[in-house]
Write a structure and sequence with these properties.
The chain has 4 helices and 2 strands. It is α+β, with helices and mostly antiparallel strands and 89 residues long.
Length: 89
């Protein structure tokens, strides 16, 4: 899973995402995503407040969004020795 995530965020189309931050507009739907990826010379940060704002980047974001869905479906066993944080209780 993690190796696939590295492949996704290291794809040139993903690296080339340069989305402007635009918080002063009316949002028609709430489907936001914020991403921070550590890069060699800093971080790549971008946010989309709704589907319309990320539409120009659909092809680059599609693998990441699919990866999120796959991870959400997985039922991972609890980490041995980890203290409960009550999130899943």
């Amino acid at each position: 899973m993690v190796r696939r995530l590295h492949t996704i965020v290291d794809d040139k189309r993903f690296i080339d995402i340069r989305a402007p931050v635009n918080n002063d507009r009316i949002i028609n739907s709430v489907d936001s995503i914020s991403v921070t990826v550590p890069r060699q010379h800093g971080t790549q940060d971008f946010s989309f407040l709704d589907l319309d704002s990320r539409k120009p980047y659909d092809k680059a974001l599609k693998p990441l969004l699919e990866w999120f869905r796959e991870v959400q479906k997985k039922k991972l066993p609890p980490q041995k020795g980890a203290a409960s944080n009550k999130c899943a209780d």
